[in-house]
Each structure stands twice: as structure tokens, then as C-alpha cells.
Amino acid sequence: AAGHDYSRQPNYALYACIGAGVGIFAIQMIRGVFPKFSDPSVLDLPERDQGMIFCLLSLVQAFVGLALCWSKTWMYRIAPVVGVGVFGVIGLLCLGLGTTMPVFLIGAASYGVYSGCFFFYFVFHAIAHPDKAPQQVGFNESMVGVMGIVAPFLGGLAADKLGMSSPFVICAVLVVLALGFQAWVHRRGFVKVDEVRAAAD
To answer: Rounded to whole angstroms, how far apart are CA atoms 33 and 165?
Structure first.
């Protein structure tokens, strides 16, 4: 999207914070809670396997983020935004409810797709309107930092009170709610994709 003018399009930065904020909360929760699966009382998952799971998640996230550098219009369309969210739900459920390595790897890859997309979506809408970009980017970074503190704490609390799978299921429900909200926002905005494409070309 570099070099294209999106300033005439609706400013979705706040809504992107809400949508991506849920995804960021979930990924910070995963990193804080999932290692508990190594306990013999839970799954006794070897640390080597956990390293492979986190490696795959980060690799997929990185490659998806790189591939999206050619994006032009999907950030304003309902179907792609909701579609990538489905990967997030699948990833969370596989990581939270799975018991075997193949299921965990599917979960990691799925959440990697979702996280690569929502981080791109998050940053894109923060800088699409240059006059507001400094404030929006600053707020985004602050939110990422706060989520890094709050998510592991709340995830661990939920795991202690409700069971190890509960934080993952709760986050999956939050992702679904956030996707519904984002779909409503995009529908309400009535952004015409051909106009976005014209601005991007």
C-alpha cells in the first residue's frame, strides 16, 4: 500500500484498535499461558515441542505480513477481514483444546495467519491518514504494551479458576464478537472498493 493515497477513505483506526486489540490480547495470552502445558499435571508437553509451536506461529505471521505489503483494498472489505478472523478462532481452539502435536501445529499456523493479517490491518489504518498518524501510531504502541501486561495475568487467572482451556475459548469468543463489530463498521462505512482501488492505483 506504500505510495498510495487513502486519506479520502474512512478513518478506521479506532475500530482497528478494537479488532486487532482482541487479537493482540489473545497472542499475548497464548505466550503467557501455553507454556503451562509443559506441566506433567496438564499435558506434559515437551519444551522442544512448545518451541516448534511458537516458531511456526511466528514464521507464518512473518511471511503473511511480508506478503501483505502488496495489499491495496482488502483492508476496507468485510469478507477478507472476517475470513482471516476465522483462522484466529480455529487457531485458538486448536491451541486451547488440542492434545496432540499435529493439532497444536495447525493451531499455530492458523493463528499465525490471523496475527499477520491483524497486525497489518492495525498498522495500516493507523497510518492511512497522515495527519492523524503520529497520535494513532503512538496509541497503538501503548495498547500493545498494556496488552503484554494484562493478557498473561488475566489468562493465567482464568486458567487457575476455570481450567487451562478457558482462556483460549474466551479469547475465541472475543474474536468472534470483534469480527461482528468490524463487519458492522465496514458495512456502515459503505466504502466502495472500486473507489479505494482507484485511490490506490
So the answer is: 10
